[in-house]
Amino acid sequence: MSKSYFRVSLISIAAAAALTAGLAPSAAFAYDENSAAVVNIDSKGVGLRGHDPVAYHTVGAPTAGKAEFSAKHKGVTYLFASAANRDAFNANPDKYEPAYGGFCAMGVALEKKLDGDPAAWKLVDGKLHLNVNKDVQKKWLEDVPGNNKKADANWPSIKAKTPKSLA
């Protein structure tokens, strides 16, 4: 192997590693498979990966929250895009908190606690439901009432378990 080929390969590997590191999710939004928390939170106690739970209802889209507009509910910190959204949440948190603690609705139907992706979402009967990704969401959408019936039945027995213990 020539020195120039070896050098080009090293540069390519270094560039790929740097690019991958830049695209990796922030450690602050890490999903903890060893946590028995009932709500899917990051290492700082933030729910919904920092997305505004009220915006799903008002804007109809995942919207990043801001630390300056935060509220705590049941030990979880939620971030909001505005003071008005924070105040709406504080007035009726049960309306806006995600179903199944923000874990994947299809996962709960299958007796799993999988990370919920704020971009794979749907409001069902006024309640925010997340899925682990859009492919899983497609499967969940095939029978939302049936999948939610299974999830509702499973949630009481799995909600306090670690995701890892359910694997």
Automatic annotation (TrEMBL):
Keywords: Signal. It comes from the Bacteria. Residues 1-30 form the signal peptide. Residues 143-167 are annotated as: Disordered. NCBIfam families: YHS_seleno_dom. This is Uncharacterized protein. It comes from Kinneretia aquatilis.
